[in-house]
Amino acid sequence: MLLTDRDILVCIFQRGAADGLNALVPYGDTDYYSQRSTINVPAADVLDLDGFFGLHPALTPIKPIYDAGDLALVHATGIPHGSRSHFSAQGLVERGVDDKAGPTTGWLGRHMSISTPASSSAFRMVSISGNVAVSLLGADEPLAISNLNEFGFDQDIIDSGYPAVLADLYRSSVPFQGPAQAALAALDELGAANLDAILPENGALYPATVLGNKLLQAGQLIKSNLPVEVICLDSDGWDHHENLPNYINQSLTELAESLGAFYTDMGSRMQSVSVLVHTEFGRRVAQNASLGTDHGTGSLAYLLGGGVNGGQVVSNWPGLAPANLEMGEDLKITTDLRTVLAELLSKRLEGADLNTVFPGFSGPYSAGVFSN
Amino acid sequence: MPIRLPKTKLKGDPASMDLHSLLDSVHSRRDFLKIMGMGLGYSALTATLPGCGSGGGSGNPLPPITPIPTASLEYTALKRTSFGVHRDALNVIQSMGIDAYLESQLDYQAINDGDLENTIQTLFPLTTQTPAQLLVGFPDNIAEVAQQMIAASQYRQIFSQRQLYEVMVEFWSDHFNIHLVNGLGPTLKPEDDRTVIRGHALGNFRDLLGASARSPAMLFYLDNFFNLASAPNENYARELMELHTLGVDGGYTEEDVKEVARCFTGWSIRFPDDTSGAYGTFNYIPAVHDTAAKVVLGNPIAAGGGQSDAEQVLDILATHPSTARFIASKLCRRFISDDPDTASVDAVAAAFSASNGDIKTTLRALFAAPAFRDTADLKFTRPTEYLAGTIRALAPDTAYPTDNGQLFFFAQGILGQLAFYWPTPDGYPDTQSYWANTGGLLNRWRLSFFSYAPFITAFDVFQIDYSNLLGGANTIATIIDALVNNILMRPLSSEDRATMIDWLVTETGVGENESLPSGVSEQVAPGVAAVLISSAYFQLR
Predict the structure, then answer these.
(1) Per-residue confidence (pLDDT) for residue A4, from 0 to 100
(2) Which residues of chain A does B62 touch, with a Cβ-Cβ cutoff of 8 Å?
């Protein structure tokens, strides 16, 4: 059961700079084919969306979501931070800033720290990961749990008094008190939630991959009685400097199968769930010698959910002719990713204070991607 | 109150785990925990004193704020320069003094590690092989290479007498990170580990940098093997400046990235189909080198320089002030705190520059810095330190594990810091904000039950001698004091001591100063040990 009128947000970060051009292919742009003469997706192979853009065939599992109006795609997007360093850019995007002088907390962390908590649960914010997502930094003790089904102690350990002693030893002012107490609270809540018994519904079949397993767990969390508000997880391995056609096929297959299964599993719950998929920057338009692409600028974001104005590609397409490229070689950013994030927060998560969440960003605050 | 010991074997013997599926799953991520669905379950891990109430009064009002008593300078120096305080090392540093101890550690070749190295050669022979040798069994040998490389690294961290050297090996392994399971990586990384990282860990930075630049493992991992004049691949050039030398704010431009990439065109490797039989060696290919002039960080690189173009780049980068500052910052972060003071970084950077990148000289400056000498408990240890430190503290006299390191391998997988398994070129993070989270702490707590090794079959691959650790203690109060002294090796606050006494008194129904029946102390000890190594005291350095 959903405890608030807000959507539950699932954020998926594609680590490594995911290519947008071979995912949502601008097959109507002839410069795409001249710049990527041997690593392009032929027009005959794309899943046409609007006569100009078409999906890579590996994205077939999410085409029905687009057709149902629950998937929107924002092309030529990103945060104009100017960095081509993975590590700097991931930090900047997760912080929601375009300059390293901005706040060191994350954009979601800032939102969650000022939004009224829907509960006092330890499960308000969960990174299904070994570490807390940078985008959540600044919020009060988000959980970081690699595998929810392996998080816990047996009753014998609990009965021995071991967790109770730790609760005392990690009392106020002791180093690591925050995460230690959150872990102990989470243990109690998770034990009562019995996630193991929550199975995929509606015939959903998650792929047996890392991302599939994480989205399966996200589905379990949402369907449990734990009052989760935000879930963050990573999709790794998008840094395709070489052999891009082969590697992106694998990566897109995993992404689409995982998202498709999640959408099926959620069923009508999808009315109150928003899923965001994005990366740190896109890849160079032209291919390199290794049949891959180097670091670029603009890329692609995916938005799924019942509150999404789906079935559309949002793109003020800048074009791929050399004269139209960022620094003469990259896809320009025509929609600031923060525009999409701000719209998501304001329309789906009751986010009111966008100036605090995105300092230094003056809008626009909507790209028409979400409904109220 | 009856005291029951866990007798049954853990469900899911870790040794039965399919390593291939483990490695397959971690190829694309650094999260091993799902594997543990087949592995460590804890139903059999009944603590020694089950079923007696709720323990130490967690429902009571919080006691007054009492910081953790500071550890001794000797303890801190050891904890910062090793993989965990070992009883014998603490005795040595207390008798010879911090300076003399650290100087002896810098002179690592004078420390005899022969028995350990012989053991590693016997148990993990693939770690000693060349790329051509490893290619013979490739790709079927990927899992075995990975397992042996990781186990050898763990053995050295736990058992080596050359602790500072091993700390620097880990430091440079992260700095010049290469993901082992990455294409041809399993055939190439073992030699990189031996000749680049271990060969220069306490040597000269320019030599280390040059060896890394020519390392087939690095040339493959960062794609420079396919960097052609006709279509440069910038991957290595960018990371060379961002991660290996200048740092991201070190003053280079996107144009410099392109120019450095051009300088490195033609730096490649001999491939598996190489007819000369020299697979996996460095190979400069003049035909694909960009022969035109370049400019790197304002320095002209004359046309026609060939292979020397990149050597000139390495000279420019190694001696650049940004590099000194970047390396100094990372060293201070490793040895002092996440946010080291400017004075320490300045002093270390100055020593780096003045010595032309002599790593021992650089470390001496760091060890002389007041922030290193006078502070303690500023950092959260990383998982490798937690696991090795647990064994070094609980089992200082143990023989090598009877399972050839399998248990430690899986434990490190849970903790999330397996050697050579960080997928991206920046290496494992070295900050508390990354590691000190809910899941990270919980995993350490779970592995604290290694303290039950004498009583649990699956853990009984190393030896903990509780009678020695207890030293004859046979009351609750003296048991706690003995284990604090011999396992924690740093003082416990009076409040925390009282908490632990209350817990055991409640659980056993025996007064804190009453003598326990013969043999019971050894049964109580593992639970106390687990709490101690789960506490903040043990995580800090």
Answers:
(1) 57
(2) 171-172
